[in-house]
Amino acid sequence: MTTKFLLDESRIPTHWYNLQADLPEPLPPVLNPATHEPVTPADLEPLFPASLIEQEVTTEREVPIPEPVRDVYRQWRPAPLYRAHALEKALGTPAKIYYKYEGVSPAGSHKPNSAIPQAFFNREAGIRRLTTETGAGQWGTSLAYAGALMDMDVQVFQVRVSYDQKPYRRAVMETYGARCIASPSNETEFGRSVLADNPDHTGSLGIAISEAVELAAQDPGTKYALGSVLNHVLLHQTVIGQETMEQMAMAGDSPDVIVGCTGGGSNFAGFAFPFIGQSLRGGESPRVVAVEPSSCPTLTRGQYAYDYGDTAKMTPLTRMHTLGSGFTPPGFHAGGLRYHGMAPLVSHAKQLGLFEAVAYPQKACFEAGILFARNEGIVPAPEANHAVRGAIDEAIRCREEGRAETILFNLCGHGHFDMAAYTSYFAGELSDHEYSDGELAMALSGLPSV
């Protein structure tokens, strides 16, 4: 009875996979916010080096992974695939449950899969300073780690509510040598304007992005790094799904259902896109389920429209599922899933009917994470609890229907720096929030006219 399926380091993927090559309809263009014309590479040059801009716009199926990046990946990749025997038994389900575990990275999540190449390509372009945003802190931690390896200065704007909730994430960033600032801050013009209106603002990823972009745009020696949403970030994460496909073959199995949590879309895309691409090329076609928080329901209740990626409206316009760039969700503990929009490529795939989406309240997700921890031994990050919840519900469905399906999900990070959230759950201090149609309509009222 095999529990974990391990690949040798030689099996680390040599290329990233690009879903755009297999889509039946191309991705809608990204628009210049001033002219509403499609952006040019020159429009993106203040923020990104040419190599990442090329990855952002390419439609080639495979993009080579530089050997120096693969060498760093060896620190934790290939990540293990587990069969959840104990969870299956606890649920009394005939289903088989597998999970890919990305919490084995130094930063504790999937985020270094993109942080390392982003820092590498910036360094190759002569850049020595990066700015970024972070919610829960997993991306900030990962870019701080990458900055340490690549000898780069990193400045992280962390959403204020997560900055206060997760002091140990901040401590890890500082251990790696990064500077972490609560957002909104007094360090940028936009941050000061937000604080002037509301000195107690809890922050949002949209605001933190605005602050990081503002600093990068002002200094030719500084570039901006994003932890999710953009095509090149999703591209880098596809090492997850590619490894998983090999490991499922090692197990002599193939998934009937694939589950991933979604916030900006990076871990979901990295996990699911290789399987979706296989399906589009005529191969096996598992059901794919994206699970998001009901407190930030972009896929299930957002509008598919052109919108800004940040609150200050400095970024290009992308067509995505959005709740409006001014949307500020409540300070629930899955800080990595609090972004107002969904990755354009994930949103486009949803419009094409390539996967389905569900939303869960946070208490139900913590309940699932605790059940998982008590059987499998790993304490999931609050974000990953959404995928756990989705997988457990699929297993319960199989039990009720008497179906022995194979369920596969991505456990995208551990919760070792999120124990304050679990403490709040056990103390009965967490609440669930659902939005009325009127609240969402108000948040969407400021969408740009395109």
TrEMBL record:
Q: Which Gene3D superfamilies match?
A: 3.40.50.1100
Q: Which residues form the Tryptophan synthase beta chain-like PALP domain?
A: 75-413
Question: Which reactions are catalysed by this chain?
Answer: (1S,2R)-1-C-(indol-3-yl)glycerol 3-phosphate + L-serine = D-glyceraldehyde 3-phosphate + L-tryptophan + H2O
Q: If you read the UniProt record, what top EC class would you report for this enzyme, in one word? A: lyase
Q: Does the keyword Lyase apply?
A: yes
Name under which the protein is recorded: Tryptophan synthase beta chain
Q: Which residues carry this modification: N6-(pyridoxal phosphate)lysine?
A: K111
Question: Its encoding gene is what?
Answer: trpB
